[in-house]
Amino acid sequence: MFRKSLSLLVVAGLLATFGLLASAYFTSTATVGNNTFTTGTLNLTASPTSAALTLSNMAPGDKVTAPITLTNAGTLDLYYAMTSNSTNGDNKGLAQQMTLAIKSGVTACTNGGFDASGTALYNGSLQGASFGNSDFENFGWPQPGDRLLTATALEVLCFQVMLPTSTGNPYQGATTTTTFTFNAIQTTH
Amino acid sequence: MIRKSLSLLVLAGLLASFSLLAAAYFTAQATVANNQFTAGTLDLTASPASSLFTVSNMVPFQNHSAPLTLTNSGSLPLRYGMITSTTNPDGKGLASQMSLTIYTEYDQCVSPVPSGAGATIYGTDPLIGAAFGDPAPGGQAGDRVLLPGASEELCFNIGLNADTPNEAQGATTTVTFTFVAEQLANNP
Known about the structure:
heterodimer; A: 3-stranded antiparallel beta sheet; 3 helices; 9 strands; 15% helix; B: mainly beta; 3-stranded antiparallel beta sheet; 1 helix; elongated
């Protein structure tokens, strides 16, 4: 009985010693809080969003010239490219016959001023008009023709649509409606 | 059983990785819609379209008048000119013995001579080769302008010349007047 009590005392003493040892260091905790992460925004806007160019009762040789402003309204730099789609409800193929020229940096975006300044981005048929390559994920970017627009920046593109003087009688009374689509993607990848 | 589950897990992991890659970029899109373009129409009509004259038993000195209305039935302004063709089926050359006058000013387009006749745009000159304006592209002297929806009436007066020889007796010719229109815009 006595030996058993002694053993218990020894164990208790060891535990007490270990306990004293364990509490023998000062400790401190510092925190680095409020580490905030915010994603950027990618937002390309076009102005106007509708009916930038309209021309009715066209005769061969008629043309219309108007600006479209692209604005990077987000916080991230972006690349953008353009595609277009033209209707052919009367099967006369008017969009195929019409031409489109797109320039940047045109001083006077009017019928008379279009040729005087600027850099050509597209010159060809209105049907299927495009610049750059909007299929970013399959082809990578930037591709030739893709336009860089830094955050909050804007640029004015000048569009000129024309019915060529070579247009024949089959196109009389024909109509097409065109939608220009500007696709953007973040610059970094 | 364990191996099958493991394979499924690997496959699921691959799919998850692919989804993450595919969605890994921010994109945006802006559109400019409703850009509408419509071509105009160019349509000149003549009335009557046939048989302005049907004359039989003509004799020298005889004249006949008939009004012809030209209408711009299209949506574009136009200018037009006229050319003439004649037939000579019997070889007697009747058309070469006939003359034509086209009046733009007159009170009544009656025979043998229009009343109050004033300005003319042709003649009195030979029927063969009768023309005014020029069908070639561009504006030429004598071309006449008609705005969309507008019309004008011309008075045609045809005569058999006084010196028509006997050889022309019983002769026949059929005459076609052709009016050729072109757009006024972008076509100086």
